[in-house]
Amino acid sequence: MDSTSTIQEQIREKYGSAARAVAESDNVLGCCDPGLRCCDPVTTNLYSAEEKGIIPEKAVRASLGCGNPTALIDLRQGETVLDLGCGGGIDVLLSAKRVGRTGKAYGLDMTDDMLALARENQKQAGVTNVEFLKGEIENIPLPDNSVDVIISNCVINLSADKDRVLREAFRVLKFGGRFAVSDVVVRGSVPEEVRKSMLLWVGCIAGALDENDYLAKLAKAGFEDVSIEPTRADVVEDARQLLTNAGVDVDAVAPQVSNKFFSAFVRANKLQAACCEPGCCAPALAEAKE
What we know:
By secondary structure, the chain is of the alpha/beta class. The protein has one domain: Rossmann fold (3-Layer(aba) Sandwich), CATH 3.40.50. It is built from 14 helices and eight strands. The protein is globular, with a radius of gyration of 20 Å.
């Protein structure tokens, strides 16, 4: 099994375990053991009381993200939204309510247990304009130019082929579409022991891109108006327990990683089609003939 497949299997097992823990527990405080990221401080206090009040409790408890992308993007009535790595469905359900009955929200996840939990949360919420899809974010099972907005919550950094993820995101976005994701980003060099830890890949740390690399990859995929806005500083300190469980001496590496990892809101646009797409040059050509 190659390294990419190994990473995917580790992620599938980790997040599947988290979904099962939430689905099987009736105790809000008992949803996760200390080894699961949903108990890590980096994931807390991301959603307002109002947001938590309109979605099922288990959708909140299954949130393993590092941000709240739905709070940072302007979603409009009638739009189609796609959440990459939707987990228990919290961001999908929030998006569905904002785009209204004339809009639609898709959630994509590769983990059966998470999809089962997400569909149960959808049922409990009584939201009908939602569809959960099984698949990998490197191979999005939707047609070209089919969604208005792509969101994601601390998932793209888990992929071992981020270039392919961004190309796929660009492909399925409509012209004029928006890319608006929360992710963990790194600023500067990182100790090799952190990069090599499989558990930290699953915990959204070791797979984080350097901010300049992230911007460059977005541009390479075709996006424009790319930007990265820090939303939560020094997530390594927040994730002290996760690092310790992975065998990392946090105090020893702290001087090398302090303030280098941060949660961020990553934005980009797929600009409108150029004039000479089929049909759009007719007015210009007519004027030229005159």
